[in-house]
Amino acid sequence: MPTRPKVPATGVSLLRLVIDLGEAPPAHELIGTVRALTHLYEIGLLAGAAAGGSRFRDDALTLQRIGERVRSDGAAAGSPVRAGQAQRLEVARRRYERSANEIVWAAPLRIQSLAVQRPLDIALTHRAVTAPVRGYGAAALGGIGATVLSVQVHHQRQEAQPEPVPEEERDGLLRGAAEDGFWQSFGPEARGLIVAADREKLGRSLLFLARRRPRLA
Fold first, then answer.
1. pLDDT exceeds 80 at position 145
2. Mean pLDDT across the chain
3. 3-state secondary structure 86-143
4. Closest listed residue to residue 147, CA positions, set 184, 199, 182, 188
5. Which of 103, 117, 68 is closest to 88 using CA atoms?
6. What gap in Å lies between CA 187 and CA 184, rounded to an integer?
7. What percent of the chain is modeled with pLDDT above 90?
8. What CA–CA distance (Å, rounded) separates 168 from 79?
9. pLDDT of 48-98, one tens digit each?
10. Contact at 8 Å (CB) between 66 and 82?
């Protein structure tokens, strides 16, 4: 039976990870790892804001509703989106992006320590000092911790299987485990309020990190 790693708190102010990038990892591996962690953190900030009362949540709901109305009207009429609808959708998208940027700028990720060795040892925290973004930062770090936990459990279960998973299925299962771990902290509604393009980029970052078998320190 695989052993379950220690569960991180839902919201944390410091998260320490170890990631095996091999002996003397090239610069692009280090850069890619930090970039993936930063992306997870920033989407976690937005998911934390979407899960509670915030202007970002309001703007995300507005964008979602207008988008659904535009798609519904277009499908019913069988015609392209009208100019007025396109303008409302663009305004809603700009508001969403402005609210998202304000949160990300108010609570940047901070690497508290980084030991380039085997395995890589990295400690993450955030720079938010005021509510509510301080809470979003803690939730985002908790989301990364939950992702890493889910990936650890996934790898343990795969190794305990009598037959290896076919190679063509591995990435899909690994990404699914990472996504499940990340979103469990925020819930399905918050997930739906993050635009599809950001969710897809998040999925690629999750897979990048999961392939490198991060562990909670």
1. yes
2. 88
3. HHHHHHHHHHHHHHHHHHHHHCCEEEEEEECCCCEEEEEEECCCCCCHHHHHHHHHHH
4. 182
5. 68
6. 6
7. 71
8. 39
9. 999 988 999 999 999 999 999 887 766 444 555 566 788 899 999 999 999
10. no
- Tell which residue, 55, 57, 35, has the closest CA to residue 47: 57
Token look-up 């015609």 returns 79
pLDDT confidence of 1, banded at 50, 70, 90?
Answer: very low
Predicted TM-score of the model (pTM): 0.89
Q: What is the rounded distance in angstroms from the CA atom of residue 104 to the CA atom of residue 136?
A: 10
Take residue 185 and report the two structure tokens written for it. 């902290």
Residue at 112: amino acid letter: Q
Residues 144 and 171: beta-carbon distance below 8 Å: no
Question: Which residue type is seen at 13?
Answer: S
Give the other-Cβ count within 10 Å of 3's Cβ: 7
- The whole-number pLDDT of residue 157 equals 92
Scanning the structure block, which residue is given the tokens 């999750």? 206
Q: Which tokens go with 197?
A: 């393009």
Q: Which residues partner with 120 through β-bridges?
A: 19
3-class secondary structure, 166 = coil
183: left (phi over 0), alpha (psi -120 to 50) or beta: alpha
Q: Which amino acid is at 148?
A: V
**Buried b / exposed e across 24-56, counting CB within 10 Å, b at 16+?**
ebeeeebebbbebbbbbbbbbbbbbbbbeebeb
pLDDT at residue 180, rounded to an integer: 96
